[in-house]
Each structure stands twice: as structure tokens, then as C-alpha cells.
């Protein structure tokens, strides 16, 4: 009986760990929305800001990848 409860709680914990993907998706959407807003206001400055755009996107996506890694660790290691 206890093995089933711990397995169930493991799945709940892994599901809760993947909620970090929501923050990652919101962050990437916010980054691109801000970039497009700024590019429409000043099109000549957009090419210089493209590098910053991709750095911000990579950092925001890293949080989502970390949350998936935590979920995998909870499922298979814990």
C-alpha cells in the first residue's frame, strides 16, 4: 500500500516541477513582444538588439529546461 502512495506522490511532484515551463513560456513571449514593440518604434536599432534578444531567450528557456530536468530526476532517481 505504501509503495503505491509514494509512487503517486512522485508523479504529483514531477507534475508540479514542470510548472516552471509556464514561466519559461511567459518569459519568452514577453521578450519577443518587447523586442517587436521596440523594433516598430525604432527600426534602425533592431539589428543591434538581435543578439540581446537571443541571449534573453536562451536564459528564459534554460529555466524551462531545468524544470524538465528536475521532473525527470524526481521520476527516475527519487
List the helices and strands and how they pair.
Layout: H1 2-17, H2 20-41, H3 46-76
Helix pairs in contact: 1-3, 2-3
Description of the structure:
This protein has 78 residues and is mainly alpha-helical. 88% of the residues lie in helices and 0% in strands. The longest helix is centred in the C-terminal third of the chain and has 31 residues, at 46-76. The protein contains three helices and no strands. The protein has helices spanning 2-17, 20-41, 46-76. The protein has a single domain, classed as F1FO ATP Synthase (Up-down Bundle). It is found in: Cell inner membrane. The chain crosses the membrane at residues 16-36, 57-77. Keywords: ATP synthesis, Cell inner membrane, Cell membrane, CF(0), Hydrogen ion transport, Ion transport, Lipid-binding, Membrane, Transmembrane, Transmembrane helix, Transport. It comes from Hyphomonas neptunium (strain ATCC 15444).
Amino acid at each position: 500500500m505504501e509503495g503505491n502512495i509514494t509512487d503517486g506522490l512522485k508523479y504529483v511532484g514531477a507534475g508540479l516541477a514542470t510548472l516552471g515551463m509556464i514561466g519559461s513560456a511567459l518569459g519568452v513571449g514577453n521578450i519577443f513582444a518587447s523586442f517587436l514593440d521596440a523594433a516598430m518604434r525604432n527600426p534602425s536599432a533592431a539589428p543591434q538588439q538581435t543578439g540581446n534578444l537571443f541571449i534573453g531567450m536562451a536564459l528564459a528557456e534554460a529555466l524551462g529546461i531545468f524544470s524538465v530536468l528536475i521532473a525527470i530526476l524526481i521520476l527516475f532517481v527519487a
